[in-house]
Design goal:
It is a single chain. By secondary structure, the chain is an alpha+beta fold. The chain folds into 2 domains: 255 residues, Aminohydrolase, N-terminal nucleophile (Ntn) domain (Glutamine Phosphoribosylpyrophosphate, subunit 1, domain 1, 4-Layer Sandwich), CATH 3.60.20.10; 193 residues, 3-Layer(aba) Sandwich (Rossmann fold), CATH 3.40.50. Helices cover 29% and strands 24% of the residues. The protein has 18 helices and 23 strands. β15 and β16 form a beta hairpin. α4 packs across α5, α9 crosses α10 and α9 runs antiparallel to α16. The chain is globular, with a radius of gyration of 23 Å.
């Protein structure tokens, strides 16, 4: 069966997400996945809505692939979801099965050829579309093996390495192919696929990146219920789907006309879900491991207040990511909570053309302090995390200019001292303000009157409550990596300059 690829031409070059002012002090995650099996429904429209809800997970490119029983259709382009999919483009994506993707690049540069979903032809299965969230740690080794076997690559993405690996693995069903191929892939991956038969999802053996299953519609109604797989539950909410459960670590879920079935691959290991999904990445209205992210972050703030109280007059958040923790901190310490800064929703995570005047304006474009809240007051500023520290210093300075007498910075996560190899875009230790520096040195660099981080023990306590012993990855905080890292890659990223 022929494969119809309808990818658009590349959009004009635009800034990467880390170049957008006001996002510099935040880690960036890889991607969002949204897949649908819903015969009789407008699958492309559902994917579009789901990707909108997952836009925070990637702002560089977006794509949707659908299958209508005879033809695979694909559209992907650089830009935000609303830019990539005008109404007329969605109307061309007919089908009862769909998979959508929104991307932030970690392995592979930010260009159209690396946008997803990827499509490939399998000798027994026919056309397959793949969406990947995560990062493989053995990409170079797999790439070299596949090149030796005669494969040619068109992109620099580890997702294409996965696609080529699967295309060469025999099997009459995709779940069989995945069982045979995925043990060769090391690192973090949540995967969504569509084939001629249905929708398939898989998650790495450690469950590093999230993936959940939702049910759409009433199974007793004509046509029965449809199913959705998504990176976060907030994407289920926007299309009216009900959460069924999370895809388990090392599990493959297949959804077709016979319903939902499951199998496993690899060896059973202690789960190691990325702790930063709870700290920052996932939206606060999502649920992970049966826990509200909003409530988990409030608990982090309360624990932070117990560990590092401050003598102050008011608690303010860095909007919006620090808000739940700031509320918890204020509640625990007994200080009033206030919105001390207004965040521009129109600059956030958008593609600004590189203009020096805009870059020089920096944080002032994105965060505007409210003088009537800050004037003459001692302020506790609560943030969820600090990576490089550049934006933190600018914000502290802005609060002082607005009249704050003192600025006490409290961070609702431990210091980030190590790079990530599983999908967080932290290039090396030399970029991390807390790596190789004392707390006093970091405080001086950001210009705060005092600085305190949540302890690793406090974070563990906040995550453990109600999590039924499920494990987490704290590698960027403690350097204990749950997967083997290639030696040269480890040497390059762990080195501290100077």
């Amino acid at each position: 069966m022929g494969l119809s690829l309808k990818a658009a031409s590349a959009a004009p070059a635009s800034l990467r997400a880390e170049e957008v002012e006001g996002e510099l002090d935040k880690p960036h995650e890889a991607c969002g996945i949204f897949g649908v099996y819903a015969p009789g429904q407008d699958v492309a429209q559902l994917c579009y809505l789901g990707l909108y809800a997952l836009q925070h997970r990637g702002q560089e490119s977006a794509g949707i692939a659908t299958f209508d029983g005879s033809e695979m259709r694909l559209h992907r382009d650089m830009g935000l979801v609303g830019q990539v999919f005008p109404r007329e483009r969605l109307e061309q994506l007919r089908g009862s099965i769909g998979i959508g993707h929104t991307r932030y690049s970690t392995t592979g540069s930010s260009r159209l050829s690396n946008a997803q979903p990827f499509t490939f032809e399998h000798g027994q299965l026919g056309p397959v579309a793949l969406a990947h969230n995560g990062n493989l740690t053995n990409t170079q080794a797999l790439h070299a093996d596949l090149v030796e076997e005669g494969q040619q690559f068109e992109t620099s993405s580890d997702s294409e390495v996965l696609a080529r690996l699967l295309a060469r693995t025999p099997g009459e069903r995709l779940d069989v192919v995945l069982q045979r191929a995925l043990p060769r892939a090391q690192g973090a991956y949540s995967l969504g696929f569509i084939t001629r038969e249905g929708l398939v999802a898989a998650r790495d053996e450690l469950g590093i990146r999230p993936l959940c299953i939702g049910r759409l519609g009433d199974p007793r109604a004509p046509g029965g219920a449809g199913y959705i797989v998504a990176s976060e539950t907030c994407a289920l909410d926007v299309v009216g789907a009900q959460l069924v459960r999370e895809v388990r670590p090392g599990e493959i879920v297949s959804i077709d006309h016979e319903g939902l079935r499951s199998c496993s691959f690899g060896t059973r290991r202690q789960p190691a879900m990325c702790s930063f999904e709870f700290i920052y990445f996932a939206r606060p209205d999502s649920v992970l491991q049966e826990r509200s992210l909003y409530e988990v972050r409030r608990a982090m703030g309360r624990r932070l207040a117990e560990e590092a109280p401050a003598e102050a007059d008011v608690v303010i958040p860095l909007p919006d990511s620090g808000t739940p923790a700031a509320l918890g901190y204020a509640e625990q310490i007994g200080l009033p909570f206030a919105e001390g800064m207004v965040k521009s929703r129109y600059i956030n995570r958008t593609f600004l053309q590189p203009d020096q005047a805009l870059r020089d304006a920096g944080v002032r474009l994105k965060f505007n302090p409210m003088r009537h809240v800050l004037q003459g007051r001692r302020v506790v500023l609560v943030d969820d995390s600090i990576v490089r520290g550049s934006t933190s210093r600018q914000i502290v300075e802005a609060l002082r200019r607005a009249g704050a007498l003192e600025v006490h910075v409290r961070v609702a996560s431990p210091p980030i001292r190590y790079p990530c190899f599983m999908g967080i875009d932290i290039a090396s230790r030399s970029e991390l303000i807390a790596a190789g520096r004392t707390l006093a040195e970091v405080r001086e660099l950001i210009g705060a009157d005092s600085l305190a981080y949540l302890s690793l023990g406090g974070l563990r306590q906040a995550l453990r409550a109600g999590s039924q012993g499920v494990g987490f990855c704290f590698a960027c905080l403690d350097g204990a990596y749950p997967v083997q890292v290639p030696q040269q890659l480890e040497m390059d990223k762990l080195a501290l300059e100077g």
